[in-house]
Amino acid sequence: MHTLFVLLSMISVVIIGSGNVASHLFEAFKNNKEATVVQVVGRSEVSLSEYAKQVATASLDNITHNADVYILAVSDNAIPAVAKQFKLKDKLLVHTSGATSMDALKDHSKRGVFYPLQTFTKGKKVDFSSIALCLEAQEQTDLELLQQLANAISKKVYLMSSEQRKALHVAAIFASNFSNFMYAKAEEVCQEYQIPFEMLHPLILETAKKIEQLPPKEAQTGPARRGDITTLEAHKELIKNNTNKEIYSLISEAILHTYGKKL
Amino acid sequence: MHTLFVLLSMISVVIIGSGNVASHLFEAFKNNKEATVVQVVGRSEVSLSEYAKQVATASLDNITHNADVYILAVSDNAIPAVAKQFKLKDKLLVHTSGATSMDALKDHSKRGVFYPLQTFTKGKKVDFSSIALCLEAQEQTDLELLQQLANAISKKVYLMSSEQRKALHVAAIFASNFSNFMYAKAEEVCQEYQIPFEMLHPLILETAKKIEQLPPKEAQTGPARRGDITTLEAHKELIKNNTNKEIYSLISEAILHTYGKKL
Prior knowledge:
Number of strands of chain A: 8
Largest interface: A-B, 89 and 89 residues
Shape of chain A: elongated
Radius of gyration of chain A: 23 Å
Oligomer: homodimer
Helix content of chain A: 40-55%
Mean pLDDT of chain A: 91
Distance between the termini of chain A: 82 Å
Low-confidence stretches of chain A: none
Order of helices and strands of chain A: EHEHEEHEEEHEHHHHHH
């Protein structure tokens, strides 16, 4: 009987950061067969998972020199300062920001971007395999390494320019931040009339699922879509908060306009 | 051996209408043990399911006289006219509209409301058991019958006044119509930069699920939430469509204001 040993070379990763993106990335690489996190560099141990703490160090001075990829998962405005402190000039350094150009790392010839398009909540697990990962790199070989790394945790890997990624980030703000703000407005209206907001959960979920089958422009319903001015006016009377009244009017007018209806 | 026969009295229902709400209600009552649809009155047979056609009639003149509940599932502005044509004055007539007061049926002493809070798409099945049903009735015995009927198809049955229901409808417009409009804006930004909109599907779904665990006001993220003016300005530059640029600014300002951030 023969035993065959295969030597697999795993991609070794260092995560710099201890926030939401850092800890979710760490979890995504856990038990992965193609990549492994060898170190997490984070000022705040508190926010790291128990497992991540085992490989954690608090200072960039103690950073390991022999990893393949260094992922800078810090907040957008901290990127330049932390990148400046990163002294391993021959190592591939990537950031995870949608809004930041790759050239924010311009002092590093081996630079790139590893941007997961998702909203992360502390402590709430996400299925990384369905998250879109947007990659960019200055050098072709680095891009190939990033692709290999991304494919290890996600089925949806995209190569895009800094400009496209920034536009995608704007789109994500409409799709996620702004829709969440609409949920918040809905909750305020519910509170004004002692209605439990949970009633709206199934509707919110169904609305989000609908656009997987139908483009949002076709999925649009409601009084503004129908040009039902009577209902729009009645609704404005019902909303007690003046800012919310104004938002209701403005978005309704934009919908009326989109579908060629008149006020 | 004994055979025990139990006589169950099923609630018999007539659905007036052949649109989205009518056909989804019909499906919800199919194979139900406590209620049965004995007739569907609809001008348009085309839009009824194959099964519904078997009990369909095209005219209110042919309506059966011995049902327990008559559900008027027509568009809001058709309610007064169709209610006027409904001549069975001793029968319970309910409408299914969120935006319409119960008194739109004021010629009928036995009147009520049976409002399912959901967005219905033709041909797309929904799980009725998780849909909130909002009930109202002029007479107490009728309200009890409606509760029995609602409990037969949903686990979430609420009694509310016409005013509360109208407010809930406004909240639903923020939560569903307006969030969908934000998805449409996101798609437009994607199109401007040749980005596939499907990339945003997982993010949209996660955002919708998040508020089942966290109130939307706490779940809010993004540059406006952080008061990151530099990113907001850069984003406005990126958006090519002027209306979308304006919507981006207005909602961002509202978020900044909500969280005490300054422009």
